[in-house]
Amino acid sequence: MVVGLRKETLERFVEANGYEIVLKHGVTAAANVSGLSRPTVYAILQKYPKQPKRIIPQYAKDFANTEGAKLFLDRNRNRIKTWKKCYHLGFKCYLLLGKKDPFSWVVDDYRKLWMYEKFADTLTQRTRDSVAFVLRLWMKTMGKHDLLQQEEFATRGLKRPKSRKSWCLEDTDLYNLVKSIKCHYLLLVAEIGVKSGGRISSILGVRPLDCNFEKDLVMMFEPKVKDYRPRFLDQGCMSRVKQYISDYQVAPDEVLFPSYSTVQKALKTVAVTAGVSRLASMWGATHIFKHTFVTHGAFHNLSMESISEQTGTNPNTLRDFYVGVKERKLRHELLGEKLDVLPYHEWVQTFEPLWRQQYSDIPVQRKNKTERQPKTSDLTSKSRAINWVAIKRLVENPKTPIALRNYWFAKLKAEGKN
Question: Is residue 308 part of a domain?
């Protein structure tokens, strides 16, 4: 196995057409042309029998050597977390402008970038806010502060409309989703999420120690506020949590549910089965449970203060991003149509038979914790040899503890080494 082959060495060999020379004239000729030693060429051929495709092209190296790219890295590498993405977008702009040094970009160049169709948002038909941020960062770095004051390069009004208010599960979607769940952990994650409004990071961190079954509450740690917040759940949900702990033998200080990636993957699979296609293709799909709680809580007359306390989110943020629009409520208030809205606790109870039946229908899928099988090397390895000369010195040393000296003296006598 070849170890320690540098990327620069491989690039040097490829740029010298080393693979073609090896096929036509042999390893010695390739080593002479590339300026590498024969063992190095053999090492390259052993690790990469065929020429690798992912070699940095020359134009990427030319961009890295430009005055603008060097200045950008010097100013922003240790200052901005997303400097790599900004650098790569600048590289795209470099190619778009005909490999022109960013330091020499002028107003017309920035106008061309600002009007580039692939940088535009499909909804607003204007430059995406993320791209605008990067372009303005390059302007600042290149010293084009006068351009930042112009209206055509401003960032105001470039953000997408706040469309996430409609991002929640309606009653029918929630029913179909629950009926399609075939594992207990995902069923409880969905129920706790819909009834508590907690973030997925808080739910996945719950342990049996955090559950108070007498007061029907669960203490969840909120990373954003770095503190524990009480989540009040109905008796049916708490009884299923208690049953889950018993069924899967969860230790008191052990988390109840698996990792985020496992839950996310399982939820998207269930969403396909349930016919909730938008949820199946959504990034961060597990966050929909919080939106569902806030939207249904507001619709079923739960006060915004109670929702804020339960979710640990500022009321203004809830109004701006989480409370979805309920058409029935608008038609009732604007057109006078009849609207029967249950209180929140009664609406929750309408789904209780579904949660209970679904949990009982799913078999317990507890994994058997088998003992580790001994490896073949453990069975065939020889016992470690004892250095009897060192043991004799240990026994003869007056500073050796009496108990240790007696133990090894008996061993020497048994082996006939004394």
Answer: yes
